[in-house]
Amino acid sequence: GQSLEQPSEVTAVEGAIVQINCTYQTSGFYGLSWYQQHDGGAPTFLSYNALDGLEETGRFSSFLSRSDSYGYLLLQELQMKDSASYFCAWSDFNKFYFGSGTKLNVKP
Amino acid sequence: NAGVTQTPKFQVLKTGQSMTLQCAQDMNHEYMSWYRQDPGMGLRLIHYSVGAGITDQGEVPNGYNVSRSTTEDFPLRLLSAAPSQTSVYFCASSRRPGTGVSEQYFGPGTRLTVT
Fold first, then answer.
1. What is the DSSP letter of A39?
2. pLDDT, tens only, B13-24
3. Starting at the edge strand that comes first in sequence, how are the strands of the sheet with B4-7 ordered?
4. Is the pLDDT of residue B35 over 90?
5. How many CB atoms lie within 10 A of CB A98?
6. Secondary structure of B30-78 in the HEC alphabet?
7. Given a cut of 80, is residue B102 above it in pLDDT?
8. B48/A95 CB distance under 8 A
9. Which of A68, A72, A74, A90 is 20 to 30 A away from residue B72, measured at CA?
10. How many CB pairs (< 8 A) connect A and B?
11. Do A43 and B104 touch (CB under 8 A)?
């Protein structure tokens, strides 16, 4: 079967660094994406990895290890506006499959 | 560019009623999909399409139909609404998965309640 696992909730302090892990089990894997969703809003794209290694986009970085079926999203210099849910999603050549999401609480 | 648009934003149905959720995109994307999101949960794929005239089932297709007659439009039909279909529905479009960075663009969602 296929599955994605990520922690349900993470709490961090403003200005800190937080890492949200994602492990997956699937066949036909092509890439791993990350999305942010604020309460009541639509998901928005953050980052994508098809190859092993780190992708950096401003304060956000995403890492993938295909051999370990593992990835993470790293958020630096946390801001209150980063409080949201974060989803990892794998893709094959036909579809995207989302994890259940990690709720990030940023405290002052 | 309007991006991905969805109508209606809110809808209340009685059990057994049918309706169509509309979705349109103006980015000429091949790939379109429908997800449902229940409270505190992730996105579950209902149906997807890799181009006009081509659709396929996702994880939770029962009770829903789709068609794709044009690149722009991908309506989702609820055949006979049930309370279990109370959810938020998101439509998304992107380049086809596996063709590079497939950033999905999501519509604002339709909040559906079935009583």
1. T
2. 999 999 999 999
3. B4-7, B19-25, B76-78, B64-66
4. yes
5. 23
6. CEEEEEEECCCCCEEEEEEEEECCEEEECCCCCCEEECCCCCCECCEEE
7. no
8. yes
9. A90
10. 66
11. yes
